[in-house]
Design goal:
The protein is an alpha/beta fold. The protein contains six helices and four strands. Helices cover 41% and strands 13% of the residues. Helix 1 packs parallel to helix 6 and helix 2 crosses helix 6. Bound molecules: 4-nitrophenyl phosphate.
Length: 149
């Protein structure tokens, strides 16, 4: 069964949303998790604005807890989706070999192949930024789920 990890910087805004959205589209047999490249929010719940936008679409992500990406995630997961270029660089820096690197992809490449478009960091913006992020992630996760079924 495919194991998927969503990665952003803090693991409180974008990647917990991606985790919640993808979980809602797949059965419980799939392992789906999220992590941040930074350790600022280890043990924290998602940002209240991510919790709120998820709740607007019927998803409860309030119980998720932030954690930092670790090298062993390359062994645990088959696919590692990053939100932006900086996440990509930070994850690839920790890769031990080409096999690790091959697991890492920009999540929006699922809907815009090879473009390396970014899911913008909504942390310093307003609620509309979280809504935009939700819509991008929902479209990408729909494609990921379809490809796995
Ligand atoms: P995320 O957003 O990477 O989507 O979780 C951020 C959350 C926190 C910070 C930056 C980005 N921060 O600087 O604390």
């Amino acid at each position: 069964m495919t194991k998927i990890l969503m990665v952003c910087l803090g693991n409180i805004c974008r990647s917990p949303l991606a985790e919640g959205i993808l979980k809602s589209k797949l059965s419980k047999d799939f392992i789906i998790d999220s992590a941040g490249t930074a350790n600022y929010h280890t043990g924290s719940a998602p940002d209240i604005r991510s919790i709120a936008v998820a709740r607007n679409y019927g998803l409860d992500i309030s119980k998720l807890k932030g954690r930092q990406f670790v090298v062993s995630d390359f062994d645990t997961f088959d696919l590692i989706y990053v939100m932006d270029e900086s996440n990509f660089k930070n994850v690839v820096k920790l890769a031990r070999n080409d096999q690790d690197i091959a697991k890492v992809n920009f999540i929006l490449n699922e809907i815009h192949k090879g473009e390396n478009f970014e899911v913008p960091d909504p942390y310093y913006g307003g609620d509309q930024g979280f809504e935009n992020v939700y819509q991008m992630l929902d479209e990408a996760c729909e494609k990921i789920a379809k490809n796995l079924l």
